[in-house]
Amino acid sequence: FTNLNISVMKCQAGVTPEFKRLIGYMTSYISGCRYCQAHTILGSERFGSSEARLNDVWNFEESVHFNDAEKSALRFARAAAMVPNEVDQEITNNLRQHWDHGEIVEITAVIALFGFLNRWNDSMGSVLEDLPVEAGEKYLQENGWEVGKHQ
């Protein structure tokens, strides 16, 4: 698993470490995995995400803190994380306008990795550590993240 995680989260194309974690957050939010929501928002912060981006990620469509390329990737992540998958031709075409093939592979790999992690952590009842709990309390409460409902 460690090798898979390193491989997926390593930046080979133009997707930054900060943005990969925001994609992971979007995927985890759709899946409802509190554990991964807290870890990805903390990871985004550690990789330099601004407080404005962290607070605005769920409202990315209207946000001035995300450019058109990032919005297309977050839209793709949101649709790809749905069950059943809601990626359609319009979402795909929009994504391809802003990202090259290698970047789309990286984005999709992050979504798939967190799809696995969301199911693993929720099903196994992974206990959330103190630092991610603090990040969840700081950035995620407005989006329904509740202290005590993270296992």
List the keywords.
151 residues, mainly alpha, 8 helices
Q: In terms of topology, how is this protein built?
A:
Blueprint: H1 2-9, H2 17-31, H3 34-46, H4 51-56, H5 68-81, H6 89-98, H7 101-124, H8 130-139
Helix pairs in contact: 1-7, 2-3, 2-5, 2-7, 3-8, 5-6, 5-7
How does this structure look, described?
The protein has 151 residues and is an all-alpha fold. The chain is built from eight helices and no strands. Helix 2 packs antiparallel against helix 3 and helix 3 crosses helix 8. The radius of gyration is 14 Å and the shape is globular. The chain starts with a helix and ends in a 12-residue tail after the last helix.
